[in-house]
Design brief:
This protein has about 575 residues and is α+β, with helices and mostly antiparallel strands. Among the domains are: about 130 residues, no CATH class; about 110 residues, no CATH class. It is about 45% helix and about 10% strand. The strands form six sheets. A four-stranded mixed β-sheet has the order 9-8-11-10. Strands 3-2-4 form a three-stranded mixed β-sheet. Helix 1 packs parallel to helix 8. The longest helix has 30 residues. Keywords: Membrane, Transmembrane, Transmembrane helix.
């Protein structure tokens, strides 16, 4: 299956022969790739106490993302840039923020500010939370300057400059070889495409501090519980990442799939801790906490409660949720699918949206009813049934919290993803580099490969790379614009935060058209249809990318002799 070549002269591994050899090509490309990866990736501030090894693994993982999905890395960088610009506009509304710059917004959104209140562990806050706390008078605006932020940043200007020079050199070298009709190796073509695709990532992240190790701590004298109460929430309201989720989750467009939700290398989130310990609990204790969905079964069927629904948006000052009519236990069970249930004071059950609250159910006992614990948490049950405890010890422990939450130690690097409606200018800045990246691979359509099969697989892969990237981005854009609320994914890991699986409407139905029925495509009404389509497009992109990376390595075993001919710079640039 040998591939016929124009020159008819195929050579294997070439050592130093007076011109460039195989090792020269490999070394030059690796240096460009490694330096570009190391300088282009701008991660958020690590959590307190994270080891250097853990941070290195995180950087390595995102470096692999830049290799396998450079378009996605640019998308993340663009989303963070757009978010920082919006945060800057918001902060400029404060009179004391006249010196606030884009560096400050990047610094805040990357977890550069850590809030410390009397009743919670320190946790990072983003620009939206910072604006809220300052505008409400809970804290003063941090007085950190641009110079201080850049002093914290360990971004090596020399390293960035060197990476840019190396990238520029490989571009010039590729152009010169094309002019003199000297072929490139697939590895050089891949490196060239990577350098071009990361150009916009450099642009979007140019003013974001890099390698910041220690955040700025903001002391807040107001308890977090008071801040929550002032916002219209319960003082012990559960959360997903931090107590400020009621602000930070409002603009969330994407959320992780449950499988990746607690990926520790990403967010540094600490697992919920068991707070029971050896604490004594009274069977007559006025309140007890039970975790898990099954706990609803243990509320007596003859009990009725008043249900209050917590607001999904920030309530205006003084606004209080209006209680709904008394609901039976069956209604309570029906509603559990859409929210978290907690019995508050005076037999009030509070329903919190699942999108912004952790799945914890807390039920309080009153003097007339008791809480059945059959099938509930075994540790809590054993404590309740411990007859060795004295009545005094039982009375001293009035409350048991089976699971407590600890806020995330850092802001995840994927916490800011594309919004619902990206500006057209920003879309153009994303699409153009993506098209150039794909076009560079298409330039290698007639490259000579060791076998015809490898050449055909290369061609098929670059077609998939060029087409599926546009299809995926365009499809997600269309689904967002028309307000489709079924579930669909972004490269498998993330799904749209506004998904409503129970709302079985297709894209066509939501836009008021009947094309699907006319064409006889009934599957379009299935809520998971578009998730499957986008997942398959992502799979095809991943397979194509893996093949391209594999081929650029194995194709070095046989290359045309002209690949090893040096450029005649005197002919390319006269008078040197």
């Amino acid at each position: 299956m040998s591939n016929s070549t124009a020159s008819g002269d195929i050579r294997g591994w070439v050592f130093d022969c007076g011109s460039r050899g195989t090792l020269d090509i490999v070394y030059g490309c690796i240096v460009v790739l490694v330096s570009a990866i190391w300088t282009v990736v701008h991660l958020n501030v690590p959590a307190k106490g994270e080891s250097d090894w853990r941070v290195f693994l995180r950087r390595t993982r995102w470096g692999l993302v830049s290799i396998f999905a450079p378009d996605f890395l640019t998308l993340v960088a663009a989303s963070q840039w757009e978010s920082a610009k919006k945060s800057l506009q918001q902060m400029r509304q404060l009179s004391e923020a006249s010196q606030w710059g884009l560096e400050h917004s990047f610094y805040a959104n990357s977890g550069g500010f850590v809030l410390q209140t009397p009743d919670t562990e320190p946790f990072p806050i983003n620009g939206a939370s910072l604006y809220y706390l300052v505008s409400k008078g809970y804290i003063a605006l941090p007085s950190i300057t641009r110079e201080e932020i850049w002093d914290k940043s360990k971004a090596d200007v020399f390293a960035k400059g060197l990476a840019i020079l190396q990238g520029t050199w490989i571009i010039i070298q590729s152009i010169a070889r094309a002019v003199q009709k000297l072929p490139l190796t697939p590895l050089e073509l891949f490196t060239l495409a990577f350098v071009v695709s990361t150009t916009m990532s450099y642009y979007f992240w140019w003013r974001k501090p890099q390698h910041v190790g220690v955040p700025t701590v903001i002391d807040c004298m107001v308890p977090m519980s008071q801040i929550l109460v002032d916002a219209g929430y319960a003082p012990d309201a559960p959360y997903t990442d931090t107590p400020m989720d009621f602000i930070e989750k409002q603009s969330e467009s994407w959320k992780r799939r449950p499988l990746f939700e607690r990926f520790d290398l990403e967010c540094g989130r600490k697992e919920p801790t068991q707070a029971c310990g050896d604490a004594a609990v009274s069977k007559e204790s006025p309140e007890a906490s039970v975790c898990g969905k099954s706990a609803l079964r243990h509320i007596k069927s003859n009990e009725t409660f008043t249900i209050v629904e917590e607001p999904e948006s920030i309530p205006s000052p003084g606004e209080i949720s209006t209680p709904r009519p008394v609901a039976s236990t069956e209604t309570l069970k029906d509603n559990f699918e859409t929210g978290i249930v907690r019995r508050d004071t005076e037999d009030t059950l509070v329903m919190s949206p699942l999108s912004s609250r952790a799945p914890t159910l807390v039920a309080h006992e009153n003097t007339k009813s008791t809480l059945s614990l059959r099938g509930a948490d075994k540790k809590l049950k054993s404590l309740l049934e411990d007859d060795s405890l004295s009545e005094k010890e039982k009375q001293d422990s009035r409350t048991t919290q089976v699971r407590t939450q600890r806020p995330a130690g850092r802001i995840a690097d994927d916490s800011i993803l594309p919004g619902r409606r990206l500006p057209l200018k920003l879309l153009a800045m994303l699409i153009i580099p993506s098209l150039i990246h794909s076009s560079i691979h298409l330039v290698g359509w007639n490259l000579e490969f060791p076998t015809s099969l490898e050449q055909n697989l290369w061609r098929g892969s670059v077609i998939i790379l060029a087409s599926m990237s546009c299809v995926s981005v365009g499809m997600v854009r269309v689904l967002r614009v028309i307000g489709y609320q079924g579930e669909y994914s972004l490269v498998w890991v993330w799904v749209n935060a506004d998904a409503r699986e129970s709302k079985r409407k297709s894209v066509i139905a939501q836009t008021g058209a009947n094309m699907a029925g006319f064409m006889g495509i009934r599957n379009w009404t299935w809520p998971g249809f578009w998730d499957v389509v986008l997942s398959l497009s992502t799979l095809s992109l991943v397979v194509a990318r893996i093949y391209l990376i594999t081929e650029v390595c194995i194709s070095l075993r046989q290359q045309p002799a002209k690949v090893y001919v040096d450029i005649d710079w005197t002919g390319f640039i006269p008078h040197i």
